[in-house]
Structure formats: C-alpha cells, structure tokens
Design brief:
CATH superfamily of the largest domain: ATPase, nucleotide binding domain
Radius of gyration: 23 Å
Shape: globular
Number of domains: 2
Structural class: alpha+beta
Strand content: 25-35%
Amino acid sequence: MEQINYSVGLDIGTTKIVAIIGKENEYGKIEVLGIGKSKSLGVHRGVVNNITQTIKSIQQAVEEAEANSGLKISSVVVGIAGQHIRSLQHSDYITRVDSEEVINEDDLDKLCNQVYKLVMLPGEEIIHVLPQEYKVDGQAEIKQPIGMYGGRLEANFHVVVGQVSSIKNVGRCIKSAGLNLGNITLEPLASSEAVLSQEEKEAGVALIDIGGGTTDLAIFKDGIIRHTAVIPFGGGVITEDIKEGCSIIEKQAELLKIKFGSAWPGENKDNEIVSIPGLRGREPKEITLKNLSKIIHARVVEIVEQVYVEIKNYGHEEQKKKLIAGIVLTGGGSQLKHLKQLVEYITGMDTRIGYPNEHLAGDSDDDVASPLYATAVGLLMNAVKNKRRGPLNSGNKAIEKELVFADQGGNQETMATTNTQKRERKSVFDKWSEKLKDFLDNAE
C-alpha cells in the first residue's frame, strides 16, 4: 500500500467533537479522507470542564475517523476558543540607539517582546501579539518598516489573551487521548481560513461563527485581523429557551429547532401547529410554530446585538474602518432559517452564509461542505499548511534561533513580505504554537 501523506484537524466544540483527516491533492485543494464525530460531553461554552468525558469523546471521534479512512491518527491540529478568550488594542514604541542604521527584524522582535511584558489579570496569559501598522518617527500607516531609517519605532498591536488553565486542559486532554499536539489555532481564525476569501479580508469583513456554546467573531480589514471576540452564547441557549418555554425535554427542543425553527416570527401563520409525543404514555403536546419562532427570535436578536456591539467597538461606523464585505455567518447555528435576513435587518450590513467548500476537492462529501464543519475544515487546512512547510525543527540553526525569539514572545505577521534574507521566517501562529507547546510540556 502506498504511503499517504495526510493531516488531521480536531475541533473540540461544546456540542460535538469532530476529527477530520485529509490531504492536499495536485490542484492544491483539500481532499477529505475520513471524518469522525462524537457528542461532546465535557465541554461547556468552549471550555473543558470534565477532562475524563472530553478524553472519551475525543477518542470516539478519532476512532470513527480512523475507521472511515483506514488510516492511523497520531498528531492533530486543535482549535482553542471559549469565553475566556478576549482581545485588546495596545500601542508601544522603542527608541533606537542609532537612527542612521536600517530598521531590521531584531528591532521588530524587541518591540513585540515589550508587549509580552504587559501585566495581565491573574491566571491570564498573552496568547497572541499581532502587529497592525507601524510608525517610524511619527510617519504613520507603515505596513513594512524593515529597511527604513528612524529613531523611534512605534506599532499598534492586536493582543489576544486567554486563561492559562483552560489552554492547559485542552493540551492534557489531547495527550491523555494518546495523541500528539501538532499545533494550536484560535478557532475563529481557523473558520475564517476556511470560509473567507482574500478579497473579503481586504475589503473588511466580520466572520460570525455561531457554535453550540459560544459565538466567535473575527474582523478583518486590509488583509489583517483587527478584532476578535468570543460571546458566551450559541445555539445551545436557544435550545434551552425552547425547552423551558415549551416544557419539553432537550432532545425534542433540539429537533424542533432544527426542523421547524425560524428566526423570523412573521413567517409562520397562527394555525401552524406541531405535535410532540408525550413522555411515557402522557398526552402529546401541541406547539404553534409562531410561538416557537418568537422564542428563537428573542434569543437570536440578543446574540446578534451583542456581536454588533463588538463590531461597533472595533469602529465599523468610522468611514476608514468600514467593513465593505459585510458579515459572513458560519457554524452550526448559521443554518437556522431566516437568520441571514434577521442579521441584515439588525445590522444593516450585507450578509452571506459561509460554506467551507471553496478549498475542498470537487468529489468531497456534501456533508463536509456544511457550515457545521467550517472550524474543522479550517483546522485541517492549518495542518496541511504545516505539513507543506515541513517539520518545525529541522536542524537549521536559523530556525532554532527563530524559536528562541518565539519563546521570548517575538511575533511578526507582516514581516517576511519584502524581506529577501535567505533564512526561513515563521508565521505568527507557528511561533505562538511553539511557545504554547513548550508551555504545555513544562506544565505537565
């Protein structure tokens, strides 16, 4: 049997855990070789709260994916999300010793390292430092300062912060399930990889990933990530509301939401009724679809309004920061009927549903191209990209030197574009994942 070069993405969600095996075909598209999913039992609002159950669910999903593909899974790329993730904007500067010398990577590293020294709340750690624009001696809006001259180097940073314990628990679950942690990616970034086009990122777009436990937001403008937020509500609270409002069990509430649910109450006539079987020989319950959509509408409006507050906080109402490409909805919750229309009505922004099919090979299973699997496909793409780049620690001294910088917190996203040096640059996520893997290893 020929050796297949494959990669694995593992999405640890609040309602489901998905393991997806795939490889890159000759056209640069992702070919899905196998998929496995299990009910997620130990995760609440994106955070692991029962390690034993989470390990079991991970093993179940991995075994199913292995059975489907006939391949063995050893290493996975996993996503991190949850209500503990928050982001902030920060500006910092360094004064250079010799302004007659060209600005180089060491100056940028030094500037980034300074941001990592920011004092965070107890138990929090800086996960990401993403440079936005630079200023050299007061000259603003510089995307690439390498090669310029100047005494004062300034930058605006997008800083992502998370709870140390939550990150550690994800690492422990992966290890205990008998897997290696290949890489860690922020889930909203993985989803955006799978469903957004480069043009949208340039024009300005807000990606809203409505999961079971959380709603993740990632805002891009000029091709750079500008804002991230995690709202601690998702499809799960809608199901909970239906359960309470209609006095039925959770399983029935979930089925009602999927089959008959709508985010727009005006769509249903008063005489549309659905009958739900009673428990153990009790009388069946009759629920009007109008009432059902009123319950759903109330909660969806709350979620969308919270997301819109975040979009406004980013500054969407300023002409310069306007998101021309509008909103892209993805995740399982985006499949709710009439949600697109409701989001357009509340925000006044163009909206579309994001499917991860653009990067998938033509013969892929239709199920995988559902918004439900956007994060899992994004994580698989990340895994394939890492595989293409080759092992992170090839004996290359230059790369080892990079890792030393990474451990000290040096992250640059936009550096390598005009840099013609021979040594290999790592992307901001590689550096961060290296730093995080070391951190997890030391935490054991």
